[in-house]
Amino acid sequence: MATLQDITGTIALAGAGKMGGAMLTGWLAGGLDAKRVVVIEPMPSVEINALAARGVRLNPKDAGPIETLVVAVKPQSFREAGAALKTHVAPSTLVVSIMAGTPIKVLQEVCGGAAVRAMPNTPAAIGRAISVACANPRVSPEQKRLAEALLTAIGESVWADDEGLMDAVTAVSGSGPAYVFLLIETLAAAGEKAGLSPELALRLARDTVAGSGELARQSSEGPGKLRENVTSPGGTTRAALDVLMAKDGLEPLLTRAVLAAAKRSRELSG
Ligand SMILES: NC(=O)c1ccc[n+]([C@@H]2O[C@H](COP(=O)([O-])OP(=O)(O)OC[C@H]3O[C@@H](n4cnc5c(N)ncnc54)[C@H](OP(=O)(O)O)[C@@H]3O)[C@@H](O)[C@H]2O)c1
Q1: Residue 83's pLDDT band (cuts 50, 70, 90)
Q2: 3-class DSSP state for residue 37?
Q3: 264 lies in which domain range?
Q4: pLDDT above 70: percentage of residues in the chain
Q5: Which residue from 9, 30, 247, 268 has the fewest beta carbons nearer than 10 Å?
Q6: How far are the Cα atoms of 22, 23, 152, 223, 259 from residue 128, in angstroms, in the given order?
Q7: Centroid of ligand 1 to alpha carbon of 219 (angstroms)
Q8: For 66, phi and psi rounded to 5 degrees?
Q9: 133, 167, 201 — which closes off a domain?
Q10: Which pLDDT score, from 0 to 100, does residue 256 have?
Q11: With 90 as the cut, is the pLDDT of residue 3 above it?
């Protein structure tokens, strides 16, 4: 795999908001030379402005040839932003987009270049994203390695051969952090109803989700087995799981939620 230290060309980041800013932080922490980075952002935050002192070029008049353009503007800004961005794209430029619901076909129409469409998620802010990426046939193996290096700087990444999967990916991992935050909120609220103080209920709920997620990640056992391991017949966990695993329990609810998100992603791409 190419590493960020191997990068010799210029990387331009268009849109240094929440996700673009998190990616940039990951790249610099991962050893990317700040002088290689150009940021195109109308309203840079204090943190992004401060990176100028490290050599990041902010909105330069002439950025010179761009090896890779990472597009992290909102999808609805893309058509408008695209005209300006196109001036940075040569036929050999790799365009990596993290915009939700924006197909490779549209990236190509607006920007040209070789295109990678990726879907990270917000744990990127702490280097724990999971991203799925797909590439069009114009992307060379070397460019794929470069895209992978940029994505693994903010967590893990997986390639998908079929762009059609991106709606389902968006519905599971792109939007997924919101479902998990809701789980924390509702578990804490339920804890309050069971008699806990709001502070303790939130702490227990948050750390239970975080610890269980990490255990599921590190364990050689699947989540089903880990669940069985903490469920004694006739015990407290069983009593709760009988509710959660009922016919109208969590599975049909989460399935409906994920299918609704995938449908919305298809509508936005259309
Ligand atoms: N947040 C997520 O969970 C998530 C997950 C996966 C993918 N994504 C994708 O990541 C992208 C960014 O999302 P975000 O949450 O980081 O949004 P955000 O915080 O609003 O960041 C977008 C940034 O792009 C800037 N921008 C707008 N027009 C521009 C232009 N013409 N040229 C350059 N920069 C421009 C915006 O500046 P202004 O504020 O001045 O408009 C803003 O700083 C979206 O396409 C989203 O679909 C987000």
Answers
A1: confident
A2: strand
A3: 176-268
A4: 100
A5: 247
A6: 11, 11, 9, 19, 25
A7: 35
A8: -105, 125
A9: 167
A10: 98
A11: no
